[in-house]
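Bit of a strange request maybe. I'm writing a small parser for structure token strings and I need a real example to test against, not something I typed by hand. Could someone generate the tokens for this chain?
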Amino acid sequence: MGEQLPKILLIEDEAGLVMTIRDRLEEERYEVETAMDGLVGFEKAKLGAFDLIILDLMLPKKGGLDICRDLRQLRIETPIIMLTAKGQVVDKVLGLKLGADDYMQKPFEMMELMARVEVQLRKKRVPQKKELLEGYEFDDVVIDFKRMTVKKEGEDLSLSAKEFQLLRFLAENEGVILTRDQLLNEVWGYDALPSTRTVDVHIAWLRQKLEEDSRYPKHILTVHGFGYKFVG
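Reply from user aminoacidic:
Good idea to test on real output. This should exercise your parser:
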């Protein structure tokens, strides 16, 4: 199995700059996808399958500030480096307030952009310690993470240890698209060495136990081509 390269989305409408940045990123062994208008870029970013987004402020169809704000409202926390030709402080402040992680003014040195890309990717690789959920409720399901119990309509459900760990990780990342590799690594502790079918099988078991109709799940959703997302 080959090395998985960090995946970067570049949303920029200047063709020459797109080519320059993409070529340099690929030289640095990043996988790059591009979009040259804001609407296309936003749709790609919404899928949440990127490790980093490089986002121009001034874009046709949907501006960078709007993209940044809307992604954060969707609870997509992919790091964002904003690029702008403007020098006004208000743009920088607003961009950071709306959830951008870094900010660079054009023209910039490519070496500096690469350094900032590496900083953001490094931050993403270090999981932020967060409060673990003690309990969670949705529909007629009540989960007690401290006692490791799950009740549906007041009746105890029997979950295996892995099913419970998987459910907990999904609930703690509500609204986030999680790849099968991420789930394998976090719940089983390895990077997809045997088969990602392991995840699919356990997801199917959870759906049978928790969903009103496992054929049409409302909570443990499949995101085709990427993985799964939990919605409470």
